[in-house]
Amino acid sequence: MSASATPVRVFGGPTALFEYGGLRFLTDPTFDDPGEHESVGPVLTKTSPARGTPADLGHVDVVLLSHDEHADNLDDSGRALLSDVPLTLTTPGGGERLGDRARGMADWETAELDRPGGGTVTVTAVPAIHGPASREEVEAVAGQVVGFVLTGDGLPTVYVSGDNAALEPVREIAERFAPIDTALLFAGAPRFPMLFDGEPLVLDSAGAAEATRILDARRVVPVHYEGWAHFTEGRDDLEQAFRTADLADRLDWGSE
Predict the structure, then answer these.
(1) What pLDDT does 3 receive?
(2) Of 203, 67, 219, whose CA–CA distance to 148 is shortest?
(3) Are 130 and 230 in contact (CB under 8 A)?
(4) What is the DSSP letter of 4?
(5) Cα separation of the two ends of the chain
(6) Range list of H helices, 119-229
(7) What is the rounded CA–CA span in Å between residue 51 and residue 23?
(8) DSSP per position, the chain
(9) pTM tops 0.85
(10) pLDDT tens track for 87-124
């Protein structure tokens, strides 16, 4: 099956919907209106609405939630949506905070999900670091984050990075799973002057291109690069970085 057989609908911010193995997966749901949003850490300002509403999603089988502590990854509308979704996979801490339908996953832990009609999809939790320092330093400030790799018999390999800023976890993931067929890469180079000397808390555009090379990702759907004031690099920056890396043919902006 080709990578292009996994259509991805993007809603803005980190939110994307895709079908895989007959199951429907949603990443980091954010559907609140623009404006200021309280969060752990600095107040976050949403600058543009989502391209759709929760009502547009249809049935969702699984939410892949990189973390629950920041409003640009899980807002009020997203939290309300979780109660209608059978399973949310997230960080160990998020699994404790989000109720009975949430499951926290440690690095390299797997969840086996039954496919309609038989067989399983394996979701592997993979490491992510939400900032430009050691994991211990970052988690003390920005909290835990998790990414995911989806695999299954006869299915492409799909990677969802979550809010990861570091390339070392990407190398670890590549050692186990490369080549990746479709990578949903969180980017946008979000920054706050008071945190880590203003260094990006998630991959910048050049880092996303380098992650693509490391993963030998055949197709990259960028998310988490638009719609919030603290995102400092957008679509133009991503396109330029991928052109510079001679990887422009890997970019896919998904459907709306």
Answers:
(1) 45
(2) 67
(3) no
(4) G
(5) 23
(6) 135-142, 167-177, 205-215
(7) 22
(8) --GGGS-EEEEETTEEEEEETTEEEEES---PPSEEE--SSS-EEE-S--SS-GGGS----EEE-S-SSSTTTS-HHHHHHHTTSSEEEE-HHHHHHS-TTEEE--TT-EEEEEPTTS-EEEEEEEE--SSSS-HHHHHHHH---EEEEEE-TT---EEE--S---HHHHHHHHHHHPSPSEEEEE-S----TTSGGG--SS--HHHHHHHHHHHT-S-EEEESSSSBTT----HHHHHHHHHHTT-GGGB---B-
(9) yes
(10) 999 999 999 999 999 999 999 999 999 999 899 999 99
Q: Quick one: CA torsion of 205, 211, 212, 215, rounded to 10 degrees?
A: -170
Q: Is the pLDDT of residue 174 over 70?
A: yes
Nearest to 180 by CA among 112, 89, 241, 247: 247
Fold entry, domain 3-250: Metallo-beta-lactamase; Chain A (3.60.15)
**Spatial distance between the Cα atoms of 95 and 79, rounded to a whole number of angstroms:** 13
Question: Measured between alpha carbons, how far is 135 from 99 in angstroms, rounded to an integer?
Answer: 26
What does the block give as tokens for 226?
């638009």
Domain ranges in the chain are 3-250
